[in-house]
Amino acid sequence: MHALKALFAMLAVALGASGATAEPLLIRNSYVVPVSDSQPLLVEKKDLARHWGKSYIMEAARYQGTPPMITAMANGELEIANLAYSTLGIAIENAGISDLRVICDEFRDGVPGYFSNQFFVRKDSDIKRIEDLKGKVLATNAIGAGVDIAMKAGLKKHGLIDKRDFTVIEAPFPTMPAMLNDRKADMVTAVMPFALNPQLNEIGFALYDQTEGMGPTQFLVWTVRQSFIDKHRAALIDYLEDMLRIKRWYLDPKNHDEAVKIASKLLKIPPERLGWLYTKKDYYRDPSMLPDLAALQRNVDTVADMGFIKSRMDVKKHSDLSLIEEAAKRLQ
Questions:
Q1: E strand spans, the chain
Q2: Is 80 exceeded by the pLDDT of residue 20?
Q3: Residues 136 and 167: beta-carbon distance below 8 Å
Q4: What is the pTM of this model?
Q5: Which residues pair with 29 in a beta bridge?
Q6: How many CA atoms lie within 13 A of 301 on its CB side?
Q7: What total number of domains does the chain contain?
Q8: What pLDDT shows up at residue 11?
Q9: CB 256 within 8 A of CB 290
Q10: What CATH number is associated with residue 72?
Q11: Using 50, 70 and 90 to split pLDDT, how confident is the model at 21?
Q12: Which of 149, 180, 209 is the last residue of a domain?
């Protein structure tokens, strides 16, 4: 009888342990520009997710630019860094985060027929060609960010070298039109949706775009540390499955009007100013969230050639697309 009671007690403990519900994994996924970067939009459609709140919870974490994300990853303050092609190399080669892995696409710049980041000057200035920027003050969001390096690559193509021929200052994207209007900068950086700002287009024009120095760019990629993948692979695949499902909803033309309403609410601007979203006036977004590794390799090589990272790196060795591929199989 005592043996039977002991057996039941052991079973109760075992069942209790196996039945204990683990807390959902917190996945902090970074972004810079709301709406252009998808993280805030993904949160708004979490009703489409099947694993949210069960195996994971996602938190959209905003940063001024991608360079601060490197420190956050190194300090364990971020699970997924939405890095630019520029900061990918800086993180791995300069910061020594050698186990960083590219897991999927965010968006590409300059794909033929789609938008490319622009660099605006005043219509009433003496700047009519890139060579005229010699001796001028240029505004970027963060030194070393993707648009910053792209801006400098375009200038270098025309013989203008950073620090020698021009000065670069940092400013948040929303303040760029005012910076140009107040003549605090001779050229400012315009990404979506800020490139469509009415004030910016009234006083200025795009002197050149990102393709001038970079060509088509695998601009942003989601990156995770290998140690995190090893520990939480199943939850990551659940997360990517849900993100694929939500992204495909946004990319479906039949959902465009609702997507615009969601973006309008987030940005607090009229929906009629957001008709470009998820169209060919926007960046290119791969419906399978697969990055263009060949383009990414070319882009990272350019970063190395410009001296921003110590040496060239093999992008494929720092990529693991098996996660997004496995997530995509679940949606077939």
A1: 25-31, 56-62, 81-84, 100-109, 118-122, 137-140, 167-170, 187-190, 204-209, 217-225
A2: no
A3: yes
A4: 0.85
A5: 60, 80
A6: 10
A7: 2
A8: 41
A9: no
A10: 3.40.190.10
A11: low
A12: 209
Q: What is the pLDDT of residues 74-85, one digit of tens each?
A: 999 999 999 999
Helices (H) and strands (E) in the chain, counts: 12, 10
Residue whose structure tokens are 């001038």: 212
- Position 258: which residue type? E
Can you point out the beta strands (E) in 210-324?
A: 217-225
Surface-to-core class of residue 35, CB atoms within 10 Å of its CB (0-12 exposed, 13-18 middle, 19+ buried): buried
- Torsion angle defined by CA atoms of residues 293, 299, 302 and 304, in that order, rounded to the nearest 10 degrees: -60
Domain's final residue, options 146, 174, 209? 209
Q: How far apart are CA 282 and CA 124, in angstroms?
A: 28
Please state, rounded to an integer, the average pLDDT across all residues of the chain. Answer: 92
* Best CA proximity match to 288, nearest among 146, 106, 160, 125: 106
Cα–Cα nearest to 186, from 155, 215, 212, 146: 155
